[in-house]
Write a structure and sequence with these properties.
It contains 17 helices and 2 strands.
Length: 341
């Protein structure tokens, strides 16, 4: 049987003139999880076994209370340390009480324990590392994001979770990472439900600033519902909440410049949800705003090669949006028998 995607492509090519790149960068220009200009030197140095730039970067985020940047940079440094951690060992040997080194150590221990068949048991051993990281700087909400992830993996009760959540928002009421960690705990895949997940996300978005990434939290709840599994049927109420979450995220995306790497992950998630909902024109606009900044999340959730899945979704969106648009220079009018040509 001929490839359906190829037939679809041919049909669109026949129906309307070629549209070029539709304002999208070429496939070769798109990068997956590209580090920004602050993170790049730290990763290059770590590859050479040097911890100095990473230590300086995290210290700068802590001194400036850049908690969102701190959390993002931590995740990228830990992802690198999972396969090459010599630089971290040297850092801890030189400064065993450095709050930034302790934070990296705790996050790395969680990441490794999470992959173990004995996850809960190994995560419990990580508890003192999280405590040490939290004591390093009482202002820092990032250790509490670790604590919320830890609570999910160790099957902590709702009472324990709520106590940790209170500590997290006391440090930073609108920290996106802590909100995402709490949403995971409350999801249907863990200890809550889709309704509970949406309720939490929508309340948090209402209470946040218009430009805060917390505005995208309902979109996370929508994503959790959409990828629940084959054969899952959504109710009309759920579909309304999904579309409302997408609308809110579209408004958030519009507050950032096109091609800005800061909201790239939110825009990738938004494009995914819009594609899933068949909102092709709006999805295409988000792919334009994403520019070259593809992110592993959410594409890695549905494919082993997230960059390839991103490019495939982007290409399909461009084609479907082109097929849905009227042919330039031609007015649709009924032909013989009242049918439109």
């Amino acid at each position: 049987m001929p490839n359906l995607r190829a037939l679809f492509r041919a049909a669109c090519t026949f129906r309307r003139p070629a549209q070029g790149s539709a304002g999208l960068p070429s496939d070769d220009e798109v990068l997956l999880d590209a580090p920004d200009e602050r993170l790049s030197p730290a990763l290059v140095a770590a590859a050479l076994g040097e911890y100095g730039p990473a230590a300086k970067l995290l210290a700068t985020t802590r001194d400036g209370a850049e908690w969102e940047n701190r959390d993002r940079y931590l995740g990228r440094l830990v992802a690198f340390a999972r396969s090459r951690d010599g630089w971290l060992s040297d850092w801890l040997a030189a400064a065993p009480h450095d709050p930034d080194a302790l934070l990296v150590k705790a996050q790395l221990a969680i990441a490794r324990a999470w992959e173990s068949p004995a996850r809960a048991e190994q995560l419990r051993e990580v508890g003192p590392l999280i405590t040490a990281a939290a004591e390093g700087d009482p202002r820092d909400p990032v250790p509490w994001r670790l604590a919320l992830d830890h609570a999910r993996g160790t099957h902590a009760t709702h009472t324990v979770f709520e106590a940790l959540w209170e500590q997290a928002i006391r440090c930073s009421p609108h920290h996106y990472g802590c909100h995402v960690a709490a949403l995971h705990y409350l999801s249907a895949a863990w200890y809550g439900s889709h309704r509970e997940c949406f309720d939490f996300a929508e309340r948090a978005a209402e209470d946040s600033r218009p430009s805060s990434l917390v505005q995208a939290l309902p979109l996370r709840a929508a994503f959790a519902l959409l990828i629940e599994g084959p054969g899952t049927r959504t109710t009309s109420v759920q579909e309304e909440r999904i579309d409302a979450a997408a609308d809110l995220a579209i408004a958030l995306s519009a507050t950032f410049a096109p091609g800005d790497p800061w909201p790239a992950e939110v825009r990738n998630l938004l494009a995914f949800v819009l594609v899933t909902r068949g909102r092709w024109d709006e999805a295409l606009e988000q792919f334009r705003r994403i520019g070259p900044h593809a992110t592993s999340f959410p594409w890695s959730s549905v494919a082993e090669d997230p960059l390839d899945r991103f490019l495939e979704a982007r290409d399909d969106t461009r084609l479907r949006a082109a097929c849905a648009a009227p042919i330039p220079g031609r007015a649709d009018r009924p032909g013989p028998g009242g049918h439109y040509a």
